[in-house]
């Protein structure tokens, strides 16, 4: 009995000590959920205006008044194929559609360079398109082909880096040599020498590959200038692709 009494006394003493130690503590409050700030009317208005501007680009494709397109059967089928595959017809095709000869020539050369057999991957070809367009600051091609880089690489960050500065991207030595060549050909074509071609060979490119790099760079230098001269506007859908 005496031992039980002593044990009970010790338990009470510990309880008093614990009570004294915690007397100054306040009970914890439940964490509050973060409050989402409502969008201010001015910001909402700006977003709506930006959306309307992007949608307007799907109506006024270029700043020139050209004849209404009358597609022949092959180009009508091609437009349908684009719509079925992409969900829209690229505005560049609509811009060329006033003249079937020009439209067919553009489509044939584009498809050969960007989709035809080549030692360059589709991603590498799109990277050239964006690097050249960045040098020329072509709005249409940066938006459209920046989206293509995001698609083929499954890397939205790479698409943004290519648009802003390809040198900041963590590209391979092969890709960096390819892009350096394409940009030099764009900015200073008169300075191209055998040493530039040899650098591509050392990076693993064949002479046929060098032809393709040069042809793609040349093609986009042409399309960049036509797009800039006519204020060609990219489809609004491109802005949202592969984000």
Task: Please give a structural write-up.
The chain contains 11 helices and no strands. The chain is mostly helical and 243 residues long. The protein has a domain at 72-78 and 86-240: AhpD-like, CATH 1.20.1290. The chain has helices spanning 2-21, 41-56, 73-86, 91-96, 100-115, 122-136, 139-153, 156-164, 173-187, 194-202, 207-230. 65% of the residues lie in helices and 0% in strands. Residues 17-29 have low confidence and may be disordered.
Q: What attributes characterize this protein structure?
A:
65% helix; single chain; 0% strand; 11 helices; AhpD-like; 243 residues; mainly alpha
What's this, in brief?
The chain has 243 residues and is mainly α.
Structural class computed from helices and strand pairing = mainly alpha
CATH domain class of the domain at 72-78 and 86-240: Mainly Alpha
**Helical content class:** 55-70%
Taking all Cα atoms into account, the compactness measure Rg is 31 Å
Average per-residue pLDDT, rounded, comes to 86
End-to-end Cα distance, whole Å, is 77 Å
Largest sheet: none
- Beta-sheet strand percentage? under 5%
- Summarize the helix and strand pattern as letters: HHHHHHHHHHH
Number of helices: 11
If classified by CATH, what would the architecture of the domain at 72-78 and 86-240 be? Answer: Up-down Bundle
As residue ranges, the low-confidence spans are 17-29
| Principal-axes shape call | globular
CATH superfamily of the domain at 72-78 and 86-240: AhpD-like
